[in-house]
Design brief:
60% of the residues lie in helices and 0% in strands.
Length: 1273
């Protein structure tokens, strides 16, 4: 019997309004001590009085609206708050089922509509009391469904906090939410969220029970206890057939209506948000309280033992966590972590110190537990799964199938990790500017979207030979791939194609190499063919793991064909995008041409594919059996390219399979000679067949990479247990081509080499001294074989420098005492002889001279050719070449020595160091000595009061003529160490070369430089004169910048300046214009995004996490607070985007540019979410920066400070920043204080950005749930 009736008369409407106005006096009526006591004895008089008022109104024939007015007066007279918890309990208590009359239901309807009773409270009480008896009380259940349909989402934030707390407690008690969901602290928002979730689950349960598909109690995960019904209140069936028939008909209608109500509720936006909050936050709410003592223990535990008497149950699970495999066991109290490891416990104990190990253990185990993150949501999914299974067997389910389909779709939608509210209008249009994929497949490499420039900048930066990396480039590139794919809103095909193109460009820049002690082609090929495939493997692992964590087993079971390789899986999408991206690389012919030294390897890769196809067609050999024979260049029958090497690298990493060999045109065959020379068998086959490591075979194996890990493992065993000659030979082979060009197994070769440096003690070793003496020949072969510049840098980009350093420490300890005996009286030897005899002594010598130089107490000495060598022969020419190189990069600086006024002098220690280094031998195997010495001298020149590098460069150029270009380009970095003007020019040149026109020049060019304009096609431009692209010069110089804070300011200014230029159309890179000739806002926004991405990339390269924190906490806040400083061009009236003429579009784009640069820079150094490799490492930096900046913005929105920027810029900046965080980095939002989020959301609502405000709060985590509820109400 629906609660429907005629519309309210004007008189009744006035009565309702009067009743609502009366609520304003609730707070005044409330007095301490007026609360209703919890004792049952005191409830009866109040309940009796309320029911007497209701009965009197009923006897007078008053409508329910008048009842509500009378009861409202009584409640107010008692000084109770509205909505009244006591009144709700009285009314529902009498409905269930002592006074189960239609009139009382109508009164409840009016009480809910007028605010006398909280809808949440009343519906929760009804859910607990009516739903368990929905079959024997069909009338009450029908009326409950009507009220649920009307009021389930009619929650309000009215009432005092005390009233809301009392409602929350009563609801939680009624539904046993705390016990059922293991959440100790229930606030209003969590209670509302779980009430809706429980109600929808119960409706589905009722329908299943009505259809004879009742679940057992144990299967009802998170279900509430069933109330025991007092038999006196049973509505007994009688023999009245009509009555029985009516109730049966009502039960059937209730079954349909229950699903209709559930479907309607789940389709509502509010319900979507609440259910998504359940899905995303339930595991956090549960685990958060279990982990608090553990993370507190990290700060108080002793270094050796787990010092707590009791351990939480979190780490006592023994492998049976809801059917999931657990990889951890219990830590026994009072035992050390090392003892646990020795006991065979499979724990995460690889971190160095005890606290870190414990932290790693906790995080690992929580990640395992988090596989059941949606487990609480499973109680809902289990119902849907049962419905899906039984649908074809149940006639009742068939009849309501159309409703069930919509209901299931609604619930599945709330589980989407990409769940978003409706896209916003103006600002949302800017945020959703993608990477212009349409251009990607129709233009050449130079025209690829510039938003992928971080790939190129990162890869080229890894080639800086003066910097060794402690973190693997694989990890960094993995995170960068994920970040750019998300921020550019691109598919995997577009992302991987941009990645491959950037790596190919990196290799092509080495076509005209500059000779010198710097990484060359081998290091660049390592990035293309080893680092990049490994990074893609890392992406795939992380994405698949994330999918497994966020998708419960029940959700997978709901998809009958779910497999990791199915089209819907993330693994399939990534592999499909990768395969497509490789196929499309064939359009970049200029990038696929192999360098001369790689032609043979490319041809062999193509021949391997041809051999595979031939075997497949003939069926004469196994398709997986490929002959690794070596053909000479003249005998090659197939033409290979870099594409063949890329595909072989991906096949080796199991990213793609050999079906790619059958792509049309993949194998290009030359015309066969009449009698081709026979193919020689591979020396590796000979080796694996048991041949001895003769000198001939050793030399052959050193120049050909090992084909697989098996060969590497055999060499490792020989290096350990072979004869002395065999050990040395095996070590040489490992450090040969297998290490430099064994791209498919490179990391395994390095691991074997490092393990050999720290050779374990043999079981039969009993001699005095170190066992390492017996391995001296092998260790010596490794040290000399791995000391080449390219090998060192390959080890560096793989992040294994710390491992090498750790392996060298025992060697230093073992051979340190022996060195003293060898050296004899070191004072009798010259420094050069000392370096020649013991190269390791170079470090001590350089350290000494460097320390003396930095002390600054030594007087300069004239470099006049008498006491000290003279640079006069070529000093002026070297200085002129330096000036030309800087000019080619857009930097103009005065000369120092051309006018003859600057003395040609050096501090005494530096003069001695230079004189020493120019006497070193020029053996190519000792280039590392020159590299070490050169870096030391560059560092020392910063302490001199005048430019010293031209003098040093001139002296070195006289000695090593083949290094002339390298020396001059190294000296070109000199001005940036102390001259901010030069740094400013270089930064401007970077933006100019990338975006196209010269900023503020007024020029309107027609072509953009893009990546090739920024980094160039080659390391040095063609022609007799040396030149260097501004981006390359920046990457090689930025670590020398004296004031990196200054760099942050300058980059931000250039990004903002670019936005002004682009908004007016003066920048050349914005092709999309309106009919009036103006640049469209979307096109300008895309170009501004690219400028911001460039700025973020340059900033992160220069200073990493430190400068990003400066940007968040100082640079941007200072810019927003201070009045906008006009650029010189604007002050002269030369700039197109003059401050006085800039329109709203310019102001909007300025804020957009700052927001994009802020979020992008943080994403690069911190990662997007907890799946990032850097997330835990950067936790402290990230949390301080994000919280500090959002607190500042919240204060600005509250008017606590006076801002100097334009209001339109502030609105654009805040809206875009928060929009980007919500869309791309929601994990950041969860780190912001909930009160700050509430303030930010309030500011957004003031700008009518209500959707963004709600979405911001929705991403705030468990502590922000109540704020979400308030925002929706």
């Amino acid at each position: 019997m629906p609660l429907r009736g005629p519309p309210l008369s004007s008189k009744n409407k006035n009565t309702v309004e009067a009743l609502k106005r009366g609520h304003a006096g609730d707070a005044a009526c409330w007095r301490p001590g007026n609360e209703r006591k919890s004792g049952a004895g005191e409830a009866e008089p109040e309940e009796k009085t309320v029911m007497e008022v209701v009965k009197a109104s009923e006897e007078r024939g008053d409508p329910p609206l008048v009842w509500a007015v009378e009861v409202g007066r009584y409640v107010q007279a008692r000084g109770l708050e509205l909505p009244s918890v006591e009144l709700g309990e009285v009314v529902v208590g009498n409905l269930c089922f002592a006074h189960n009359k239609p009139s009382l239901w109508k009164f409840l309807d009016q009480a809910l509509a007028s605010g006398l009773v909280s809808p949440l409270h009343a519906l929760a009480l009804l859910t607990a009391r009516v739903v368990p008896h929905h079959q024997i009380q069909p009338e009450a259940y029908r009326l409950y469904l009507e009220l649920l349909n009307r009021y389930a989402l009619s929650f309000s934030s009215k009432g005092t906090s005390t009233c809301r707390e009392r409602i929350a407690k009563s609801v939680s008690d009624a539904l046993h939410l705390t016990q059922n969901y293991d959440i100790p602290n229930m606030d209003f928002g969590k209670v509302l969220m779980l009430f809706l979730f429980t109600a929808i689950t119960r409706l589905i349960d009722c329908t299943l029970e009505d259809l004879g598909l009742q679940l057992t109690y144990s299967e009802k995960s998170g279900s509430m206890p069933v109330y025991t019904l007092n038999q006196d209140f049973h509505v007994k069936e009688n023999s009245n057939d009509k009555r029985h028939e009516y109730r049966e008909h009502l039960r059937k209608r209730n079954t349909l209506m229950a699903m209709e109500v559930a479907e309607k509720l789940t389709a509502d936006t509010k319900a979507e948000v609440l259910l998504h909050l359940v899905y995303k936050n339930m595991y956090t709410l549960t685990f958060h309280h279990s982990l608090i003592p553990w993370f507190a223990m990290l700060h108080y535990t002793g270094c050796g033992t787990v010092g707590m008497d009791t351990l939480p149950n979190l780490l006592t699970v023994d492998g049976n966590l809801r059917g999931k495999e657990c990889r951890f066991q219990r830590l026994e109290v009072g035992t050390t972590l090392e003892q646990q490891a020795e006991g065979g416990h499979r724990s995460c104990l690889a971190v160095e110190d005890t606290a870190s190990r414990l932290y790693g253990l906790i995080v690992t185990n929580v990640n395992i537990l988090a596989r059941d993150r949606p487990e609480r949501f499973n109680c809902l999914l289990q119902r849907l799964q049962l419905i899906e299974i039984q649908k074809s067997k149940s006639q009742g389910l068939i009849l309501i199938n159309h409703i069930l389909v919509r209901l299931s779709a609604n619930i599945q939608r709330t589980m989407d990790d990409k769940f978003q509210l409706n896209k916003r209008r103006a600002i949302g249009g800017l945020i959703n500017v993608g990477s212009h994929a349409s251009k990607f497949f129709t233009h050449h490499a130079a025209s690829l979207p510039a938003c992928w420039v971080p790939f190129d900048i990162f890869m080229e930066n890894t080639m800086d030979g003066k910097h060794l990396y402690a973190t693997s480039a694989v990890d960094i590139l993995t995170e960068l791939i994920k970040t750019l794919q998300v921020v550019n809103q691109a598919g995997w095909q577009e992302t991987f194609q941009a990645l491959w193109v950037s790596a190919l460009r990196l290799v092509q820049r080495e076509r005209e190499p500059i000779e010198g002690p710097i990484p060359h082609l081998d290091a660049r090929l390592c990035v293309l063919l080893s680092i990049t495939p490994l990074a893609i493997v890392g992406v795939m692992k992380q994405e698949v793991t994330a999918q497994l964590l966020t998708k419960s087993d029940v959700a997978k079971d709901m998809e009958p064909d779910y497999k990791d390789s199915s089209e819907g899986s993330q693994c399939f999408k990534i592999k499909h995008g990768l395969t497509s991206s490789i196929q499309l690389l064939r359009q970049f012919n200029g990038l696929l041409s192999p360098p001369p030294s790689v032609v043979l390897a490319a041809n062999n890769a193509a021949r391997k594919a041809a051999s595979f196809i031939s075997n497949f067609k003939n069926g004469t050999k196994s398709c997986n059996s490929i002959d690794h024979g070596v053909a000479s260049v003249e005998a090659v029958l197939q033409v290979g390219s870099m594409l063949h090497l890329i595909i072989e690298a991906c096949i080796a990493r199991k990213l793609i399979d050999t079906s790619v060999y059958f792509w049309p045109g993949y194998v290009v065959t030359l015309s066969l000679p009449m009698s081709p020379p026979p193919i020689q068998p591979s020396p590796w086959s000979t080796f694996m067949e048991g041949a001895q490591l003769t000198k001939t075979l050793t030399n052959a194996l050193m120049v050909i990479p090992a084909p697989s890990v098996a060969e590497v493992e055999k060499l490792y065993q020989i290096a350990l247990s072979g004869s002395e000659e065999e050990r040395a030979a095996a070590a040489k082979i490992l450090c040969g081509a297998s290490l430099s060009r064994g791209w498919n197994i490179q990391e395994h070769v390095m691991q074997s080499v490092i393990k050999l440096l720290s050779t374990p003690v043999p079981s039969d070793f009993s001699h005095p001294g170190s066992h390492l003496f017996s391995y001296m020949s092998m260790i010596s072969s490794i040290l000399f074989g791995a000391c080449h510049i390219d090998i060192v840098h390959i080890i560096s980009v793989h992040g294994m420098v710390p491992d090498v350093a750790a392996a060298l420490m025992p060697l230093c300890e073992a051979f340190g005492s022996m060195s003293i005996a060898w050296l004899g009286d070191g004072a009798l030897l010259g420094l050069r002889d000392l370096v020649d005899f013991l190269p390791a002594s170079l470090a001590t010598i350089i350290s000494y001279f460097s320390a003396e130089i930095t002390r600054g107490i030594w007087k300069p000495v004239p470099m006049n050719g008498t006491e000290w060598p003279s640079p006069a022969v070529n000093l002026l020419s070297i200085e002129a070449e330096i000036k030309d190189i800087l000019a080619s990069a857009g930097v103009h600086v005065p000369t120092c020595y051309a006018d003859g006024t600057t003395p040609v002098m050096l501090p005494l220690p530096m003069a001695a160091l230079v004189s020493l280094t120019i006497t070193f031998k020029l053996d190519k195997s000792l280039e590392y000595i020159h590299g070490v010495a050169g870096s030391a001298m560059e560092n020392c020149t910063t302490t001199c009061a005048w430019p010293c590098m031209p003098i040093i460069g001139a002296l070195w150029a006289q000695k090593v003529r083949r290094w002339h270009d390298f020396i001059v380009m190294s000296c070109a970095r000199l001005p940036f160490e102390r001259d901010q003007g030069a740094v400013r020019q270089l930064l401007r040149s970077c933006f100019t070369s990338f975006l196209g026109p010269s900023l503020n020049s007024g020029l309107r060019l027609t072509a953009r430089g893009g990546v090739n304009g920024l980094l160039g096609h080659a390391l040095s431009g063609p022609g007799a004169r040396l030149s260097l692209a501004p981006g390359l010069l920046y990457l090689r110089s930025c670590r020398k910048f004296y004031d990196t804070y200054f760099v942050t300011d300058e980059i931000l200014k250039l990004v903002i300046e670019s936005a002004r230029q682009l908004s007016s159309g003066s920048a050349c890179g914005v092709p999309t214009r309106t009919s009036s000739g103006r640049v469209s806002l979307a096109a300008a926004a895309a170009a501004v995004k690219e400028a911001a991405i460039l700025g973020a990339s340059l900033l992160c390269i220069a200073g990493g996490v430190e400068l990003v924190q400066v940007l968040y906490r100082e640079t941007i806040p200072t810019w927003l607070l201070s009045a906008r400083v006009e650029t010189a061009a604007e002050e002269k009236g030369e700039g197109v985007a003059d401050a006085t003429t800039a329109g709203p579009a310019s102001r909007i784009l300025e804020g957009y540019a700052m927001a994009y640069m802020l979020v992008m820079s943080g994403a690069i150094v911190w990662g997007l979410d907890e799946g990032s490799t850097f997330w835990r490492v950067s936790a402290a930096w990230r949390s301080r920066a994000i919280r500090g900046h959002t607190d500042f913005v919240a204060g600005a929105l509250e008017g606590k400070m006076s801002l100097g920027c334009d209001p339109a810029t502030l609105k654009s900046y805040v809206s875009c920043m928060l929009g980007l965080m919500v869309q791309f980095t929601p994990a950041w939002v969860a780190e912001v204080e909930p009160t700050t989020l509430s303030k930010l959301a309030g500011g957004l609502r003031g700008w009518h950005e209500c959707e963004l405000a709600l979405s911001l709060l929705e991403k705030g985590g468990p502590d922000a749930i109540t704020f979400v509820v308030d925002a929706m109400s």
